[in-house]
């Protein structure tokens, strides 16, 4: 099998991971109705999943660093597929929650280890583009998978979504097992290895950028629909279109980043997409009263968000090549830390009636992330 086949297989795996993480967001209504629980209780599936992912990614990097990547990745996908079977059969929210915790433990393994695997498969000059390419699976999940899952759950039931994801998981596991070379192993992780990462100024600055950008994103994103309904008078279909535009632009931006990073380099490509995210958030905040302008702003914001996170992974792999999987695992944890902080701030602002200010708070956090990226470029040039 070629490196291209491995890249496509790893991309499909990331699509499954992305769907497994975000699908409950599109199924909260059908879940609450079918299981006889409140919407808030059903939404806890996302909260508990984020906690497991935040803790699980670095633990998986530590425990699985020296394991064969092909075996580790294929088993994580197969385990996740079986978790979706169990989810489809869950009789209650408590049972579904227990399965969700196990499923997210499997999911926590995959994305950082997949990035580390592709970094070992392709030549160094192609590494950034390859990592960005396989991360497009997440973008595809947001652009197409989430809207389809939400529609299917409302029309045919949420259990069918889990059966579909189980099938995709088995196909993805087989694809990885057949295409990823055997014998790919990273450096064994020790306390000294973690100390090396936390003493690397470039790694710390990049992780700070991830936390700030995710924080800014999630000040608004969990409240995206209610804010548009309140401030722009948007209908449910218009809100759905705004979500779709955000996701589709994210997918396109991610593919574009994988193509241009070889020409512009990691720092300039990161600056470009973080700047797009900042501009998109500012436009969204300034024009949120008009749904037509929100559509355009959502596309700019979405294109920047997905691509910027892909570039973060690629640059972290370059900042600590021997510990790439661990560095990317820390990036995943930083992403979830930012999500938790941003959604908490957003909740306080939303309940306090500061709806219009939420976009500007998001813009401020993302602008700070852009400054971190600029600083990281200066640090990189000094190395």
Describe the model.
The protein is an all-alpha fold and 383 residues long. It folds into 2 domains: 1-189, Growth Hormone, Chain: A; 190-383, MFS general substrate transporter like domains (Growth Hormone, Chain: A, Up-down Bundle). Helix content is 87%, strand content 0%. It has 14 helices and no strands. It has helices at 3-35, 39-64, 69-89, 93-121, 127-156, 158-179, 191-198, 201-220, 224-231, 236-264, 266-287, 291-319, 324-351, 355-382. α2 runs parallel beside α4 and α11 (266-287) runs antiparallel to α14. The radius of gyration is 20 Å and the shape is globular. The mean pLDDT is 85. Residues 6-382 form the Major facilitator superfamily (MFS) profile domain. It holds the Pfam family MFS_1. It is found in: Cell membrane. One of its GO terms (molecular function) is transmembrane transporter activity. InterPro entries: MFS (IPR011701), MFS_dom (IPR020846), MFS_Efflux_Transporters (IPR050189), MFS_trans_sf (IPR036259).
| N-to-C CA distance | 36 Å
Q: Give the uncertain stretches in residue-range form.
A: none
Number of domains: 2
Structural class category: mainly alpha
